[in-house]
Amino acid sequence: MRLILAILIPWLNFFTIGRPIAGIICLILQLTLIGWLPAAIWSVYSLSQYKTDKKIDAALKGKI
After folding, report:
1. For the residues of 34-46, what is the DSSP string, one character each?
2. Tally of domains in the chain
3. What are the helix and strand counts (H, E) for the chain?
4. SS3 31
5. CB proximity list for 19: less than 8 A, separation 6 or greater
6. What is the pLDDT of residues 24-62, one digit of tens each?
7. How many C-beta atoms lie closer than 10 Å to residue 59's C-beta?
8. Residue 14 burial by CB count (10 A; 0-12/13-18/19+): exposed, middle or buried?
9. pTM of the predicted model, to two decimals?
């Protein structure tokens, strides 16, 4: 669901992963038609990094 959100409404995705300042910057970028594509790519990339961070945290908690 977040992936669809990241593609269609990139700025909102940043708010769901806890990065509101990046969300505001992404919203400003998305306001231009040319900036929508980079905003969507940035949002999808940030979402993948968020998922990776969650997996690493889960693995570290399991080892302790």
Report:
1. TTHHHHHHHHHHH
2. 1
3. 4, 0
4. coil
5. 46
6. 999 998 888 788 899 999 999 999 999 999 999 999 987
7. 9
8. buried
9. 0.82
3-class state of residue 55 by DSSP = helix
Q: Which residues of 15-38 are buried (b: 16+ CB within 10 A; e: fewer)?
A: bebeeeebbeebbebbeeeebeee
Tell me the residue range of the domain where 21 lies.
Answer: 2-63
Q: What is the pLDDT of residue 43?
A: 93
CA 19 to chain centre: 8
First to last CA, the chain: 31
Radius of gyration of the CA atoms of the chain, in A: 13
DSSP notation for 2-15 = HHHHHHHSHHHHHH
